[in-house]
Amino acid sequence: MIGFLAAGVAVMLLDQWSKQVAASRLSNRSVALGRVVQLRHVENKRAIYSHVGFRAILVLIWLIALVSAVVLHRSDVRFQNAVSMLGLGAALGGAAGNLADIIRHGGVTDFIDFGWWPAFNVADVAILAGLAIALWPTV
């Protein structure tokens, strides 16, 4: 369970730090990383994010996801290994990072851009990769 918490906190801190760096250093420019990827600051502010009721629902959904992860860990042997717990922690840490942005800023900062896909951030990567790791069949 310590790995779960450590992964979640580490991902959230990395996400928040990377968004601050992107906002401060990429405000008026983009940086190409090869031919495929560029870093550019994108504020993803949707009108619904400013709604207090929507924010409360997001917090409730995140809490349900947290409780679900703990229940999975306690009741299913497939989620009692360290790798699965790290994956679940990373996914919840990423979700917490985006949730913190929505609550504090009314939107999410994205900065990784492939051009053909919507821009995304470290939290988005952690959510998808963490769930893939947690759900990957173990032998």
How many distinct folded domains? 1
Percent in helix: 55-70%
Low-confidence stretches: none
Rounded mean pLDDT score: 88
The succession of helices and strands, N to C, reads HEEHHEH
**Cα separation of the termini:** 20 Å
Beta-strand portion reads 5-15%
| Class inferred from helices and paired strands | alpha+beta
Number of strands: 3
- Number of helical stretches of at least 4 residues: 4
The radius of gyration is 16 Å
Identify the strand order in the major beta sheet: 1-2-3
So what's the oligomer here?
Answer: single chain
The global form is globular
Largest sheet features: 3 strands, antiparallel
Structure commentary:
The relative contact order is 0.22. A hairpin with a 3-residue loop joins β1 and β2. By secondary structure, the protein is an alpha+beta fold. It is built from four helices and three strands, in the order αββααβα. The chain has helices spanning about 1-25, 50-75, 80-105, 120-135, and strands at about 30-35, 35-45, 110-115. It has one domain. The chain has a three-stranded antiparallel sheet. About 60% of the residues lie in helices and about 15% in strands. The chain starts with a helix and ends with a helix. It is globular, with a radius of gyration of 16 Å.
